Amino acid sequence: MLWLLLFVVTAIHAELCQPDAENAFKVRLSIKTALGDNAYAWDSNEEYLFKAMVAFSMRKVPNREATEISHVLLCNVTQRVSFWFVVTDPLKNHTLPAVEVQSAIRMNRNRINNAFSLNDRTLEFLKIPSTLASPMDPSAPIWIIVFGVVFCIIAAAITVLVLSGIRQHRREDNELPEVDGTEEKCENVITSESSIPCHRLHMNGGGINGVFVTKDEWLTPL
Amino acid sequence: MLFVEGMPLLYLELAVGQRMRQGSIGAWRTVSPYLSGVGVASMVVSFFLTVYYNVINTWAFWYLFQSFQDPLPWSVCPLNGNHTGYDEECEKASSTQYFWYRKTLNISPSIQDNGGVQWELALCLILAWLVVYLCILRGTESTGKVVYFTALLPYCVLIVYLVRGLTLHGATNGLMYMFTPKVKQLADPKAWINAATQIFFSLGLGFGSLIAFASYNELSSNCQKHAIIVALINSSTSIFASIVTFSIYGFKATFNYEDCLNKVILLLTNYFDLEEGSLTASNLEEVKGHLASTYPSKYSEVFPQIRNCSLESELGTAVQGSGLSFIVYTEAIKNMEVSQLWSVLYFFMLLMLGIGSMLGNTAAILTPLTDSRVISSHLPKEVISGLVCLINCAIGLVFTTEAGSYWFDIFNDYAATLSLLLIVLVETVSVSYVYGLRRFESDLKAMTGQAVNWYWKAMWAIVSPLLIISLFIFYLSDYVLKGTLQYQAWDATQGQLVTRDYPVYALAIIGLLVATSIMCIPLVALGVFIMRCLKRGGTALVG
């Protein structure tokens, strides 16, 4: 009689957990990809931990606080390390709705990943989409800051160049009447030191000093 | 191509500029008054070029500013609305393509949909023009000092990239691809046509910028030596740069190939629940055969999803035009370590090169303007430069609209090609036959003190004009045979480029672009002829 009961129970279990069964989810682990040389082997102890994590997630759902590890059924474990699982109710005659299981897993995804030292990509729950972390949005986009700095530098350089150019133009414009003024002055003034009028000194642009005796005249011609 | 076409024409332009000591309009007026149209045409082509070329600097600035982030914005796809996956367009294309087409250009599906001006690009455009204005503000003397910097820095960056590129995984694949001659392609005349056109643009012939710069040279400087040195340095730089390019290209192709293989391996491992790590790249083929025989039905289900990964096809995917620098390179950079540094270096180098080109082109426009006494007596140099920059910036805003990239392609393909060929042809023919080859030779001898080699004379008089005429005929026949012109448009729903026909008004603008510059030559010649007739008629009446 006992054997018959056990047989019936395992038969029901087998029916409840099957690939593509109602409310069943497929899980896929890529341990070697994630951990490389530190990869652990997938054995019955790891399966026990997995059942514990799923039961833990379900216990956080209101009305499901009585979920036990034995309510989580695993089947079809392959070499890939992939398997199917279902969560049954305490009476073990039907499986809990997929929506509840899905939301429970989604909320505790981080804890489940950390228990196995994996992440969302290496521990996949097919049909349960993971919430992707949104990228950091800084308060001011960084590129505008860099743009502002470069823009200010260039604008300052242009202003400096333009202003110095204008100043040079003005200086050139002022110099020309000044030069005429000094020449007019020199016509009437005789320099104090050598008593030679200015205009003679300005001969040939000052290149030759006509007052100086040329070399040939020092020596009387033979 | 370099020796037959590039060097002789470069020597010719430098010598003309140095001898006539004026910008392009004045120089050609001195050769023959009927030919001042050549100078005007050069100026018009340079004007078109400055309008659209600074947009490249705009994009380079944009990418440069965006490189200061971690992670690089083009390395990851943005998330979709409810954060369960990535943006759809980004999934179909790649993240670098998405960043280029959506985030940078915000491209519209076709050239007809104009869209609005993208303010981010507009800001970068204004900045780019401010930088150009800063460099040309004081005239060519100050530009000369800036060019020391903009010309030497890219060499430093290229050397750094060469070292980095050669140490990348898979670089040798790219280099082997570059150095194995593809005999089939060498036999295709189109390859030689492209080589000839490339020499033109690379050396900057026909724009008037060479004449403008040479006019500031001392009368006795040895322009033959300069021409040879410049041409040789130009070509060796091109080869050097292509070594760097192909090593990075090989890295990218190898990376994509291995990525593709890994995807196939993952697909098969997951589908058949094989043990992790049992499928590797080496045993992939035999395992595929084994699976096909043992599970035929299951294999036929998964077969359509298996991509055939081939390194050759990855190396062969050539991307054209502006896409090359902004898509292919960013894809390679995002996979390197410390990618921010490499990205900043790369776009800074691109900026230096772009600004260097812009300086040459704006000098080509400004030198004739400042040479003409009419304009320079009323306005100082700074104001003329400022006005030119302002007008170009205002027109350049067209290229920052959503359809701007398509207009850019129009300008890039049609504004300069045909017109330049014609301009250089007229230049060569006019110096050889109108001015007289002997007269030119004696001028050069008087200037530099050296006789002109028979090689140059043969090139100027016979070979180069024939070559250019054949290029011209080829291009015209190509345009005529193709029928309507087509362009590549980005389809957001498919995530790839599709070919479309140009609408009528775009074709009209293309025709206008080409016609404006070419028509200058005969129109100005006609104008001078008429004025001479009137003058002669006037003197006849008076006398």
From TrEMBL, chain A:
It is a single-pass type I membrane protein. Residues 21-222 form the Collectrin-like domain. The keyword Transmembrane helix applies. InterPro entries: Collectrin, Collectrin_dom. The keyword Transmembrane applies. It is found in: Cell membrane. Keywords: Cell membrane, Glycoprotein, Membrane, Phosphoprotein, Signal, Transmembrane, Transmembrane helix. The chain crosses the membrane at residues 142-163. Its main location: membrane. PANTHER family: COLLECTRIN. This is Collectrin. It comes from Galeopterus variegatus. The lineage of its organism: Eukaryota, Metazoa, Chordata, Craniata, Vertebrata.
Automatic annotation (TrEMBL), chain B:
The chain crosses the membrane at residues 34-55, 117-136, 148-171, 191-216, 228-249, 344-366, 387-408, 414-437, 458-477, 504-530. It is found in: Membrane. The keyword Transport applies. InterPro entries: Na/ntran_symport, Neutral_aa_SLC6, SNS_sf. It is a multi-pass membrane protein. The keyword Membrane applies. It comes from the Eukaryota. Its main location: membrane. Keywords: Glycoprotein, Membrane, Symport, Transmembrane, Transmembrane helix, Transport. PANTHER family: SODIUM- AND CHLORIDE-DEPENDENT TRANSPORTER XTRP3, SODIUM/CHLORIDE DEPENDENT TRANSPORTER. This is Sodium- and chloride-dependent transporter XTRP3.
